[in-house]
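Our example copied in:
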Amino acid sequence: MKINLLNPTTAFFTFIVIFVIFFVTNASPFIYYDGYGSYHTTQCLINEQRWACRAKPEYFPEHTYHAVSEFNGRYSTVYAPGSAIVNLPLQLFAQIFNGDRNMYNDLFTATNGHTLFEGVGFLLTASFLSIFSVILQYKSLRLLNFSEKLAILSTIASFISSYFIWYILLNHAFNHTTEIFALSLFLYTFLKASQNENLTKKWWFLVGVSVGLAVISRPTLAIILIPISLYLIFNKNFFKKASMIFLGGLPFLILWVSYNYDSYGVWVGSGYSYLFSQHFVFDEWNGLNILFSKYRGWFIYSPVMLFSIISLIISIFKKFDNKNSLKIIFSDEKFFIYVLSLWMILGTVLVYGFWPIWWGGGSYGQRFLISTLPFTNVGIALFFDFNSKTSIRVLKYSFIFLTTIFVTWSGLLTILYRFTPVAELVPKTETTSEMKSGDKYTTLDILNYHVSLIKNSDSVIDYFKNLANSVSGGTNFVVFLPKFMNSVLWFDENMTEAGVRTLFFDNENLSNRVELVWQENTDAVQFLIEPKQIQREAYINCFVQNSYCVYENIKIKAQKVSLEKYIDDDWKAIKVNMKDGKEIKIWFKEPKNLFIHGVRVVLE
């Protein structure tokens, strides 16, 4: 039986199977960097029923980095609340499974600042939104009268070339999945509303909902309101359509205004201005860098997008060649979508060309243009349509060849990125005031890294071992779960007596009580063992340079460890081997500017 992979049902089933494979082998339930902004907002809503926390969160500042800041007596984030809103349902659901897990009794929470279930909640939300986005984009192309085959091929090419997969599975708490879902929903609902001869209030209302969600996820996406306004002006039933769009977007406007006031004390503003004093700089434009820079140029990482833009431009000029009036042009929903798509792509380049960190920080691909995925998909579908109608065989097959090469290039880089420690490719000495060394890697650096990996491997097995050690971006479920089955000890700096800081830890499963003691002015590491049956204290003293300290049948080993890539060298482990053969692992992290004096283990 012949299987047609370009059949919608078969294509969707294949997509789900591939997605599940990627999910199982790569999905990481950890929240990083920018993602902590959305996580923090959900926690403030859950714990304090407000956008910005007044009580200091336990995860701040150890895990939040730049995502959360203390500002005017509140703990706020610079990021818009759209992603937090769509993630809130599963975050509320995660509270059921969290139990009493906290940074003092759960290794996952201690090392990441959030529970495993909260991380999984963000991951599942991103996955669901992304699958729905793909479906909406395909259906939108069908509404634009593209064939099933072209709609499937263009959606595949766009998805692969966008590098979106890692923002679903690795950086799932970032706003991108929400932005793309909102804009995909807009494209579909707008086409459904505009192609219906009878005014359908439901669809225009959903257009407002999708625009509201997009803007509250990334305020710069408000540029979409310009072409929408023009469309409404040049079409009938302006007030009815506009009122429904306004009603759909109004709740998001209210949420955004209240978010700003609660977070920054102003009704309208940007967190970047208040928390970082960072804003758009209009005396220098880096739009060409966004498109062509070797560091994060869109056409360098996603060259097929050039075909998308060219196809949109050609389609628009073909319409203008007919010398139609603006009213006739904007009454054609297909043409409007072409104009809007080109506007959203070039408008994003225009806006972020004035942003000082135009490359998107320590991200992958041209991150600021990921949100344009629904619109670049339209352009790629147009390109495939043009090519299918070309009668010049040489030209047709040349474009097919180039498209295959471009998409394969992006797909290859997508896979290689997962196995490349990109932050380590460029020497730290190359850090400048403009860009850190970790942001300066190029596609050539990635390729050279893997060529050297092959050259430096003694065998195939050795190569795959080196490849596994090169994994970057996060650890998947299969790898990390065994590492987080251990007990945990989290050290804080609460003074209990002069010169000594302590913390108690209890774990029901291990039935052990642990006290960490740090004492000033000492060179020794001290371990206090107090077996309950002896009812006395027995001290073990050894110096930092020694590896082992032994007392009776209990052996203590102090060592530096690194739990994958996401834990730095400050993490240490104390291994307690008991008489029955069981091993207790106690993990702790040295606070900055402090020296760990010892660990007190009470075996009950």
Observations:
- Confidence is low (pLDDT under 50) at residues 486-569, 589-604.
